[in-house]
């Protein structure tokens, strides 16, 4: 019996454990919170990731390690990887923990990115705004997620407020100023690479964010084959450069037929949740297959799927369950403003059928505005 250790016990670890049960796997999860929702399905070691004792307890009970979030302290990841096989490797993790290192790698691989400048002081910020122009976005280089640690700069006069909001973090992890991309679409490539180097991608996903948080994903995205091939090529180049093993997502902005890379998430990704019911093999199952050195499953889509995130609190489940292709995922978390507490996936054989199902669910739950951009895309 193999026990997979997951650093981080949120919904990603929870869905990984659920996907691993049919493979006969056991799981152990480490998290800083005793309330971590993966703990409802796997033994939970509670402790700070830098706490050597807790980490040693976690390491002693597992055969292989992976993680459900990218902010594992580098030293802890390194320590663990010297004791048990760990995938993805600490270098892949370290690169994607730092927006500057990540963008530097994108550049080295010829992957286009939005304009950016590293910022360490208020004077740097003024110079960076002058160079990139407005609007632009100041971001912490490290530890950001769901749009946290970001400040949108609309005019040069916003520099003071931006520094006030994020300047304290210039000393700890550094800041980066990015040009604002007036994109037409946001896309993501969810990809998997096995221990033997086999590489697969699911069909491209189109994503809609609200206030920096993912709201809806549609797959397969309706994009032309040449654009998809370019996106997949970028993902493959990154996977090979990092000797990556497991699932990752590459977030892209699409503008005038051009693709600009936003960030790489070194883990299973929210924009890949649709693969649970919408693809032959889910991202969670394939991540486990990859890290365990098992054959990868097919990634083809089963019709059209749309994932809707539930943020703050769970809505009523009946309208989704009443749909022929409706699927419900409650993460078992306490409601809290801004928190991802669950998602639904609607699946249909045709775009028209999916659009109708989304309209019914949107109307029944009072979520018309959440489904509207997806319905518009499906009807285009
Ligand atoms: P997560 O890891 O949860 O995806 P994050 O906190 O790392 O989020 P980003 O992915 O950098 O944040 O940004 C969140 C969203 O904000 C993006 O998906 C996009 O909608 C918007 N955004 C971020 N950077 C830019 C940019 N340079 N131009 C335009 N929009 C942007
Ligand atoms: Mg991110
Ligand atoms: Mg992102």
Layout of strands and helices, then pairs:
Elements: E1 3-7, H1 11-20, E2 26-31, E3 44-46, H2 52-60, E4 64-67, H3 74-81, H4 90-97, H5 99-108, E5 116-119, H6 122-132, E6 136-140, E7 150-153, H7 159-166, H8 168-172, E8 175-179, E9 185-193, E10 199-201, E11 205-210, E12 213-219, H9 225-241, E13 246-255, E14 258-265, H10 275-278, H11 283-292, E15 304-311, H12 318-321, E16 326-330, E17 340-348, H13 351-365, H14 368-379
Parallel strand pairs: 1-2, 1-4, 2-3
Antiparallel strand pairs: 5-8, 6-7, 6-8, 9-10, 9-11, 9-13, 11-12, 12-15, 13-14, 15-17, 16-17
Helix pairs in contact: 1-11, 4-5, 13-14
The protein binds adenosine-5'-triphosphate and magnesium ion (2 copies).
Adenosine-5'-triphosphate is lined by residues 114, 137, 144-148, 178, 180-181, 186, 209, 212, 251, 262-263, 265.
EC number: 6.3.4.18
Enzyme class: ligase
Protein name: N5-carboxyaminoimidazole ribonucleotide synthase
């Amino acid at each position: 019996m193999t026990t997979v250790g997951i650093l981080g016990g949120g919904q990603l670890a929870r869905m990984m454990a659920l996907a691993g049960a049919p493979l006969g796997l056991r799981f152990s999860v480490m998290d800083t919170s005793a309330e971590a929702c993966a703990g409802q399905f796997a033994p939970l070691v509670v402790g700070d990731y830098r706490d050597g004792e807790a980490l040693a307890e976690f390491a002693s009970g597992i055969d292989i390690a992976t993680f459900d979030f990218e902010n594992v302290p580098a030293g802890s990841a390194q320590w663990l990887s010297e004791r048990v096989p760990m995938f993805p490797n600490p270098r892949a993790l370290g690169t994607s923990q730092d927006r500057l290192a990540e963008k530097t790698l994108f550049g080295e691989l010829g992957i286009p990115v939005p304009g950016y400048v590293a910022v360490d002081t208020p004077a740097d910020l003024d110079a960076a705004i002058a160079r990139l122009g407005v609007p632009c976005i100041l971001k912490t280089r490290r530890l950001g997620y769901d749009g946290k640690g970001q400040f949108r700069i609309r005019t040069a006069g916003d520099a003071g407020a931006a520094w006030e909001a994020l300047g304290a973090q210039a000393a700890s992890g550094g800041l980066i100023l990015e040009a604002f991309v007036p994109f037409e679409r946001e896309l993501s490539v969810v990809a998997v690479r096995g221990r033997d180097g086999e590489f697969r991608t699911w069909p491209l996903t189109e994503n809609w964010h609200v206030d920096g948080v993912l709201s809806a994903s549609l797959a397969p995205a309706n994009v032309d084959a040449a654009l998809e091939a370019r996106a997949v090529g970028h993902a493959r180049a990154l996977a090979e450069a990092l000797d990556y093993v497991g699932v990752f997502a590459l977030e892209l902005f699409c503008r005038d037929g051009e693709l600009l890379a936003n960030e790489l998430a070194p883990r299973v990704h929210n924009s890949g949740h649709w693969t649970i019911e919408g693809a032959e093999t889910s991202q969670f199952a394939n991540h486990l297959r990859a890290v365990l050195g098992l054959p990868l499953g097919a990634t083809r889509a089963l019709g059209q799927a749309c994932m809707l995130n539930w943020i703050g609190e769970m809505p009523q489940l009946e309208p989704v369950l009443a749909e022929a292709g409706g699927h419900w995922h409650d993460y078992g978390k306490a409601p809290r403003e801004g928190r991802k507490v669950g998602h639904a996936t609607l699946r249909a054989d045709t775009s028209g059928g999916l659009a109708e199902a989304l309209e019914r669910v949107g109307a029944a739950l009072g979520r018309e505005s959440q489904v509207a951009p997806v319905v518009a895309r499906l009807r285009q």
